[in-house]
Structures are given as structure tokens and as C-alpha cells.
Write a structure and sequence with these properties.
This protein is mainly alpha-helical. It is built from twelve helices and two strands; from the N terminus they run ααααααααααββαα. A hairpin with a 5-residue loop joins strand 1 (218-220) and strand 2.
Length: 266
């Protein structure tokens, strides 16, 4: 999964969403990464899951529902009530069209990245650095670093910085959040630059801020106690999810969105 996300980020650094949709390249990147990581996936199974997700998202979009709302319903009501999915037949035209599109997208990834498929993920580097800094014995430090690196996969950081810098930034952010002291200029030992690490921290913090989209679900009163305070952000979530979904499937919507951004920026 991480390898596929890195390939996806790299691809769109040399290509445009006006020429390729995110969905097409994403499924091809996942198929290609399964070969690189020696974890083979049947093409039929991958296309079945892909068509299922596309159909489900299209159903939610047509029903004007939020994905989070639909998946978190409580009581006896089942999630995605009314949604039905039938996988395409092995000999159907739909299956062969999807198969051809996946193969073409895979070729485009290889072509535009110059067959440079080497992906060095920072997870093993991070664990080794934590051992050197004697952070393994501290509870939850390594888990927090691992989670930060997972969140960073949703940003272009993996295509911008080396694995050593990414590992150090995760340690820096995790120790700052958990208030764990470290030696002065410890990052020099791992060939990382403080400015690059701090920039990565800002990118991930901005990502987290975007997830919040509104006030937090809790607040402290004057006594310091935490009080429950629900916040209605369903409209914001729906608008954001709808925009992301349209951008991932429609080149025309991407073109209109780019033109609109240029007009507002100008």
C-alpha cells in the first residue's frame, strides 16, 4: 500500500490530472506495487474491488450522503442500505475495458517514471533511529512515529524528501507532541537537515488541521475538565468528499476546477 502511494505521488509530479484520472492511476499503482513487493494480486480480484468502490462512492454521491455519515450509522439500520453491487462477468465487455485501461495506466507509470521503481520506505530507518536514541523503551513513541509516517503518505513528502529525512521528521514530531527530550542536534547523526524536518512537520500538521475542518469535539471549561461538545460538520464533510471524488474520476471537472482557481487567484 505504501509503495503504491509513493508511486502515485511520483507519477503526478511528472504528469497532470488533466490527462490522467486519479482512480485509473491509483489502481494501476497498486497492481504494480504488488509485483514490486512480491505480493501478487489477481487482476480479477483487484478489478472487482475497484468496481465495488467506484459503485459505492457513486451511490453515495447520487444519494447526496456523506461517506462518514453512512459508515457510522447506529442501531438496526445497515450501512449503505439500498446499495447493490454485481461484479462484471469475466467475459463481459466492462471487464475487458477495465483490464485494458489498467494495463495502459501501468505502462504510463513505467514510462513516465523512467522504469525507476525503487521505493525505499522510511519505516525501518525510523525504528533503527529510535533504537539508537533509546526511544524504544518509552511507551507509544515508535507507534506514534509509525502513525505519523502513515499519515504522511497522503502528502507529497515521500516524493520530496529522502527516507532518512522522513524518519527523522516523524521522530521530531512525535517527541514534540509527547514532550520527550532528545539530545541537541541529534538529527546530524542521521544526515538530516532541521529545515527539511520542520517543513515536513508543518505539512503533516496542516493535513491534520484539514481533517478537523471545524472546532474540536471537546473543550476544556474553566476548571480544566474536558466537556463533551458535539460539532456539526456534516455539510463541510459532504462538500469536501464530493469535490475529492469528482476530481478523482472526471478530467472535465479537474479542468473546470483549475480554471476556477486561476480566475479566483487572478
Amino acid at each position: 500500500m505504501a509503495t503504491a502511494q509513493v508511486l502515485l505521488q511520483r507519477f503526478f509530479y511528472v504528469s497532470s490530472m488533466l490527462s490522467f484520472t486519479v482512480n485509473e492511476i491509483a489502481v494501476a499503482a497498486l497492481y504494480l506495487s504488488s509485483k514490486l513487493c512480491e505480493s501478487p494480486v489477481r487482476l480479477r480480484d483487484l478489478l472487482n474491488v475497484y468496481t465495488l468502490l467506484v459503485s459505492r462512492n457513486q451511490y453515495l454521491l447520487n444519494e447526496d450522503l456523506s461517506l462518514d455519515q453512512e459508515l457510522t450509522r447506529s442501531g438496526d439500520e445497515k450501512p449503505l442500505q439500498g446499495f447493490e453491487f454485481k461484479p462484471p462477468s469475466f467475459h463481459s465487455t466492462v471487464f475487458y475495458d477495465l483490464k485494458d485501461a489498467l494495463v495502459v495506466s501501468e505502462i504510463q507509470i513505467l514510462k513516465r517514471l523512467g522504469f525507476n521503481m525503487q521505493v525505499d520506505l522510511p519505516y525501518s530507518h525510523m525504528v533503527n533511529y529510535c533504537k539508537i536514541l533509546d526511544l524504544v523503551s518509552r511507551p507509544h513513541i515508535v507507534q506514534r512515529c509509525w502513525g505519523i509516517l502513515n499519515d504522511a503518505l497522503q502528502t507529497p513528502l515521500y516524493a520530496q524528501h529522502t527516507p532518512c529525512t522522513l524518519a527523522c521528521f516523524a521522530i521530531l514530531l512525535a517527541t514534540r507532541l509527547m514532550r520527550v527530550p532528545l539530545p541537541d542536534r541529534w538529527w546530524v547523526l542521521f544526515d538530516a537537515e532541521y529545515e527539511d524536518m520542520w517543513s515536513c512537520c508543518g505539512t503533516v500538521m496542516k493535513l491534520w488541521d484539514g481533517w478537523a475542518m471545524a472546532e474540536p469535539w471537546w473543550s476544556a471549561d474553566g476548571t480544566g475538565a474536558v466537556a463533551s461538545r458535539p460539532v456539526d460538520i456534516s455539510q463541510q464533510q459532504r462538500a469536501r468528499w464530493t469535490r475529492a471524488w469528482k476530481l478523482s474520476i472526471s478530467k472535465k471537472y479537474v479542468r473546470r476546477w483549475v480554471e476556477k482557481e486561476k480566475e479566483e487567484g487572478g
